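Project standup — Tuesday

K.O.: blocked on the structure for the chain from last sprint. Re-posting the sequence here as requested.
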Amino acid sequence: MNNNDNENVTKNHDSNHSTMVKFYESSFSYSYPFSAVSLAYFLRYPNPYATHVLSTDVIDRHFDPSSQRLSTTRLHLKRSKIPPAILKLLPKGILGTGSDAGQSYILEKSVVDVKEGWMKTESRNLEWTGILSVIEKQTYRRPIMGDGSWGSKSTEVMDDTKDQDTNVTTTVTLVSRFGQVKAIANRRKGDLATAGPEVSVGEENAPAPVKKGFFSAWSTSSMQRSIELVGLRRTRDALVKSKDGMNVVLERLRLGGLVEVLDGMRRDREAAFGPDGPWKRA
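H.V.: unblocked you, prediction finished:
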């Protein structure tokens, strides 16, 4: 795999919704053909770098014969806790009891076009979205050759094409809406206060509009930025482990085909969870 990744980080602020948005983008390539990489993507769990993945379920799968595209929706259950660095930023009790139990769901959608040689994926967390929402989008493509054509269109999992790579572009959007719900509630409360009973001109003790203090607004924005920075660091680490795990699966494909991949998955599952898997027998 080419380790010379290109990275870019930008941020944006939605003033209407008190939401901070941070974008992270990277590009790299696998030294394997697209057919192998697209197959490895669906066989990547479990692997030695993803022992936190407890289960994977296919929610929906559809093949369109006219476009030759395969669409898949999967649900991953992972062991995952809110980072201590983020927990320190949150008021006590905001998450409720049991929030640190250590499991979270990830929704994954993908579309594969073997004919044109590309695959697009999107993954997002379904837990703790009020604190930090992470949306990861990836595009896998056969490389463009010097004559402007796409690379080898072989559908063999491991062909003999030399210098056959698969280019990958990853874009991650991190959105922290922390404080937004409270801000909306305060705004509504202020609206109700100012929309009280009608009063005559000059009547004293009329309710004054409720305004959000400067320090309160600054504190919320600062906390959102801190949460997103922690999420960004975790995202970078997760992408490195994800690439390492994919390379393990790809190497197993090269050495022994699908049989070696399935055997490796069994070994990894037993190493991570024991012979009974992640779920203990009753």
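K.O.: great, moving the ticket to review. The beta strands are 2-14, 19-30, 53-64, 69-79, 103-113, 118-125, 133-141, 166-176. DSSP finds four helices and eight strands in the chain.
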